[in-house]
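Example for tutorial group B:
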């Protein structure tokens, strides 16, 4: 069960995520807005001992986010969970398109030297190769929900 003192949100990574991500409105209004004047988030992960500073501009994480995303080799189709630990410190856990936590082989990841231009070109092709399983998963889930709703409707008239 989730600790109510450590609220969290998840963020699916869509094309263009390297330039910044939007904080969900519900999380922002309940846990961030009017709670603090601090506009720097500290991100940490199990993949590195480094603390990443990311700038919050309104409801978006921008400055420093691209460095974090690149260092963690985040890709379109990944899902990232942000757990608020207090004082604008967030533990970040990335999940791949398989819905499993991404396992890093190097305990101190450092992919910052990767060429950003190549990463953007590869990002779209990686997204396209991951799109079919993602769409298939969504279709099967929606089909299951439809069958379940029909079954309940027929059973309870």
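The residue assignment follows.
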């Amino acid at each position: 069960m989730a600790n109510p003192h450590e609220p969290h949100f998840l963020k699916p990574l869509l094309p263009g995520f390297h330039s910044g991500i939007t904080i969900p409105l519900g999380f922002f209004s309940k846990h961030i807005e009017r709670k603090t004047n601090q506009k720097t988030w500290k991100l940490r992960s199990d993949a590195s001992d480094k603390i990443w500073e990311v700038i919050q501009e309104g409801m978006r994480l921008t400055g420093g986010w691209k460095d974090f995303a690149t260092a963690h080799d985040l890709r379109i189709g990944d899902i990232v969970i942000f757990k608020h630990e207090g004082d604008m410190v967030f533990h970040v856990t990335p999940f791949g398109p398989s819905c499993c936590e991404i396992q890093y082989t190097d305990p101190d990841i450092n992919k910052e030297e990767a060429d950003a231009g190549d990463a953007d070109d590869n990002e779209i092709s990686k997204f396209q190769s991951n799109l079919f399983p993602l769409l298939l998963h969504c279709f099967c889930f929606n089909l299951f929900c439809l069958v379940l709703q029909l079954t309940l409707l027929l059973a309870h008239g």
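The domain at 8-114 is CATH 2.40.330.10 (At1g16640 B3 domain). Compare this with the pattern of hydrophobic and polar residues in the output above.
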